[in-house]
Amino acid sequence: MVRRKGSLGWLIVMIVSTVVFVSCTSANAVGRMDDNYRVFYEIFIASFYDSDGDGIGDLKGILQKFDYLNSNGKKPSLEIGGIWLMPLMSSPSYHKYDVTDYYQVDPVYGTMDDFVALADRCHQQNVKLIIDLPINHTSDQHPWFQSAVSGDPIYRNYYHFRSDFASGYHQTGPSDYYEGRFTSSMPDLNLDNVQLREEILKICKFWLDAGADGFRLDAVAWFFSGNTAKNVEFLQWLNDELRAYDHDVYLVGEAWSDGQTILDLYQSGIPSLFNFPFSQSTGLLITSVRSGKGAELSASLGRWYEQLPESAIDAPFLTNHDHARSAGALMGDVNLQKMAAAVYLLLPGNPFMYYGEEIGMRGSGRDENKRTALYWSNSDTKGMTKSPQYADDIRPVDAPIDQQLKQRDSLLNAYRSIIAIKNRHSALGRGTFTAVETAYPAICAYTVAYQDKTLMVVHNLANEICEIPAETLELLERFSALKELPSLSKGILKMPPYSTAVLEVVGNR
What we know:
Largest sheet: 7 strands, parallel
Shape: globular
Structural class: alpha/beta
């Protein structure tokens, strides 16, 4: 698709008898897209749900709580279309980004049979399942590295060794140093090595055969220590090889870097890279919602989407497991959290939501604080996990999942409503983005065009009413963080404080 920016000027809205109104209490998702455009839910397995009473979340726990993620409308559910599992392979650490066996589920999380069962359930419900693939480095306890340190020439070439010290290198013997940019316990792999590449392909095919639909690729900007050209070459090779094996495979890369580096990495043909310029507490999504600068946000988004290649599937998010949680960045204000959810979930591409974000979980500082136990209930502790060992800032939520499901105006039900809107309209995921100017600094407005349909999305990020003259539009969906919903009468679109409207440009039919 072609990304472009522009202005539709003043628009007048038409109301017809088929208008569908959706308030923040609507929940059932219908018509989920059957390809790689979906709302994904990121899970730190250890903190999600514990099925066996050892205090550690596991794969069976996710399976037991699957209806919370997606029930096909049978029960109150988020109705997400994809799951991203943080690392699940054998590892000595709590976070498991340092793998010791790429072909096994870590025993604390379960077995390969458990993984296959979860993958089967995902596919029964039309949910994509992607898993974290840390291939920038292994654990220093991995048999490959142990053999390398012992002098095996084959496995020494799996890593980077040198005879003298250099920045990012660690000593393992007299005149023997290895590269480990993140930590000494994570030796970096030599991804130029042909034999290693074949092993990586074998690993990927193993998990695809077991039921994975793709991979979240960890630290792609560090594969060759910031050498973007070589990173592009490797990503292109991996993407081409995996698509030849499974044409529908979905890859999303983590390049925690500047916008230009991310755009350069898209030259590899990889479907998605996380949208870091707009994420985190200092990113444009959260800062714009917090400051009410909607017009600046839509203009910035227009410039971003214009630069993306036609094949790109943008991956917007608020925060993830490495960042202070979004609830804290939004000052604990539930109305701002609801609007932030509306803004990023309705953007084109694949939005990724972090577990617990939908109930306002908080956490900052050390990484363990950002990966604490999900609060299912205050009265029923069955399945409640223990937070990571060194977490020192564990903050209970104002209301856990079971309470928020019953509260019409809860943050959780707001997330459910917004995801339902996203799932109903293919253009919201796949459409070509065009920024729209209005007279209000607080209004973030844009259109998304897909096939023969053009939708307009309007967010009011201010605590005041905005009335917008417009034409040739039909109101389809509406959402409000407060009680009053957007309305349309006599050619005027009335946007109450902290509200969202989705409209169709009927002249484009």
